[in-house]
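in:
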């Protein structure tokens, strides 16, 4: 009955972010279930359009992320350590100079044929790999490009099991 009184959830925010191919491979191996960021959107789910950096250099995937866990670097590092032993120290080092960091739980990933970095300037007019994150809803060009990529051939997909909360 309580669900009748819950506020409606906003639809996922579409964002464009780069990802190193080695970390992308860890997602497919089930070894990476969170994306760690120094700053990020809070309070809502995200549809992440993934640009894989060199040597892949391709807009290639869509990852569904739950709302970010925002907490102290130590707490975010504990999430990293629980997910993959030995990873906590590198996440703590990445976040150490901040009062807060973000852990974005990954729910699912869909890999598409995608669009190469060589093809993107033909569509966008100019292209530079994304730094940080870009809200694609603010760019009609990126909205069109991301939709085009996601409508292309699906190569593989996976739903990730949700980890237990860190105690």
């Amino acid at each position: 009955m309580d669900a009748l009184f819950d506020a409606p959830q906003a639809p996922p925010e579409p964002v464009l972010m780069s990802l190193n191919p080695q970390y992308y491979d860890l997602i497919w191996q089930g070894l990476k279930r969170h994306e760690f960021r120094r700053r990020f959107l809070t309070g809502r789910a995200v549809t992440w359009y993934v640009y894989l950096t060199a040597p892949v250099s391709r807009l290639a995937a869509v990852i569904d992320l739950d709302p970010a866990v925002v907490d102290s670097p130590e707490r975010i590092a504990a999430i990293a350590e629980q997910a993959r032993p030995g990873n906590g120290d590198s996440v703590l080092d990445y976040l150490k100079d901040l009062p807060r960091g973000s852990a974005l739980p990954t729910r699912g990933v869909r890999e598409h044929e995608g669009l190469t970095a060589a093809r993107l300037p033909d569509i966008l007019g100019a292209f530079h790999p994304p730094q940080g994150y870009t809200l694609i809803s603010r760019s009609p060009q990126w909205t069109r490009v991301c939709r085009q990529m996601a409508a292309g051939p699906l190569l593989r997909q996976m739903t990730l099991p949700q980890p237990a909360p860190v105690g």
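note: Residues 10-157 form a domain with the Archaeosine Trna-guanine Transglycosylase; Chain: A, domain 4 fold (CATH 2.30.130.30).
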